[in-house]
Amino acid sequence: MRLLLVMAPVAILTLISACTTTATRTDAQDENVRRDIEAVVRAQEAAWNRGDVAGFMEAGYWRSPDMTFFSESDATRGFEPVLERYVARYKTGGAEMGSLTFAHVEVMPLGMDAAFVRGRWDLDFAQRPDVGGLFTLVFRRIDGRWRIVHDHTSL
Question: Kind of pairing, strands 74-77 and 99-109?
């Protein structure tokens, strides 16, 4: 019993110390996740504004048939079908791509290899009415790179 009374405070202090160390480490790691994912989002924005739909996709989306994109009442599965959707809407027949801006981007790490991202997107057009809406993204770190595995975009 005496040994338990002596060891209990030591165990509690060790546990508190471990939690404090983990929280500090996690905060720094979370900030790295936020920075890395923000860089992916900005690379997508830059590719779009260069008129590079394929570059937009390659910068962020998971090249997999399991990647999903939900918008309006449509659900599209797979990297290639999503790319085809973007090309049909914004590149076919001289369609205007517009200037893309992502705003209010919030990255919430869900661990070392997953994150939830939300924000606003706006497309400014020269020849037609501007459009915009909200987005929710699920990112995973796959082969060392942050990839969008699910995109839910609304108008």
Answer: unpaired
Q: For domain 2-153, which CATH number applies: 3.30.1060.10, 3.30.70.2740, 3.60.10.10, 3.10.450.50?
A: 3.10.450.50
Name the nearest CA neighbour of 37 among 137, 132, 120, 134.
Answer: 137
Alpha carbons 149 and 18: distance in angstroms, whole number: 33
d(CA 155, CA 140): 25
In the chain, domain spans: 2-153
The pair of three-digit structure tokens given for residue 56, joined into one six-digit string: 């937009």
Which H/E stretch holds residue 98?
none
pTM value? 0.82
Q: Tell me the C-alpha to C-alpha distance, in Å, between residue 41 and each of 10, 29, 35, 74, 81.
A: 46, 19, 10, 23, 20
Could you read off the pLDDT of 12-35 as tens digits, one per residue?
434 444 444 444 447 888 999 999
